[in-house]
């Protein structure tokens, strides 16, 4: 799967349905047939939408964990809490389950943020707060995360 691109603002209707923006739906078109998995994020108060192929790759990693190690078993339980298999209907809508909406504090205005191979679904206000420069100095974060990466193939180092 190619990397997903874009950040989109949209709304959730009273029934919890979210209409995917056309550019995002087009990028996900190869995954529409297989379906998706919607889950709670581990680190943020948002949801993560995995195309089924990406979910299966994640499950291959998690299935290698020894379930007789308590920490691993606890992780698996918490990682899979609230996980739902979802489909995008013919109109391009995704139904967000009530328990997941409650977790992410999603009411009406949402932001869909492409995060390489998945889509994050945020309450708009929480998303704005999460990316606010006063909370995290992005320059320092970029240096910490990418500063030791040396990739001469594409001129980025």
SSE layout and pairing:
Layout: E1 7-11, E2 17-19, H1 22-27, E3 36-40, E4 47-51, H2 52-62, H3 70-79, E5 84-86, E6 93-95, H4 98-104, E7 109-115, E8 118-123, H5 124-131, H6 138-146
Antiparallel strand pairs: 1-7, 2-6, 3-4, 3-5, 4-8, 7-8
Can you put this structure into words, describing what you see?
By secondary structure, the chain is of the alpha+beta class. It is 32% helix and 24% strand. It contains six helices and eight strands, in the order E-E-H-E-E-H-H-E-E-H-E-E-H-H. The strands form two sheets. The chain has a six-stranded antiparallel sheet. Strands 2-6 form a two-stranded antiparallel ribbon. Strand 7 (109-115) and strand 8 form a beta hairpin. The radius of gyration is 17 Å and the shape is globular. It starts with 6 loop residues before the first strand and ends in an 11-residue tail after the last helix. The model has no long low-confidence stretch (mean pLDDT 90).
Shape type: globular
Q: How many DSSP-defined strands?
A: 8
Radius of gyration: 17 Å
Query: Could you give the order of strands across the largest sheet?
Result: 1-7-8-4-3-5
Report mean pLDDT, rounded to a whole number. Answer: 90
The biggest beta sheet, please? Answer: 6 strands, antiparallel
Estimate percent helicity.
25-40%
């Amino acid at each position: 799967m190619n990397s997903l691109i874009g950040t989109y603002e949209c709304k959730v209707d009273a029934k919890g349905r979210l209409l995917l923006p056309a550019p995002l739906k087009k990028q996900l078109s190869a995954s529409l047939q297989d379906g998706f998995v919607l889950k709670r994020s581990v680190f943020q108060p948002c949801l993560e939408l995995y195309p089924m192929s990406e979910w299966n790759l994640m499950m291959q990693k998690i299935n290698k964990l020894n379930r007789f190690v308590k920490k691993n078993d606890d992780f698996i339980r918490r990682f899979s809490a609230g996980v739902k298999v979802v489909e995008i209907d013919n109109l391009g809508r995704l139904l967000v389950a009530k328990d997941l909406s409650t977790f992410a504090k999603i009411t009406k205005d949402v932001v869909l943020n492409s995060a390489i191979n998945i889509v994050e679904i945020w309450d708009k206000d929480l998303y704005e707060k999460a990316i606010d420069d006063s909370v995290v100095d992005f320059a320092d974060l970029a240096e910490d995360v990418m500063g030791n990466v040396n990739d001469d193939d594409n001129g980025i180092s």
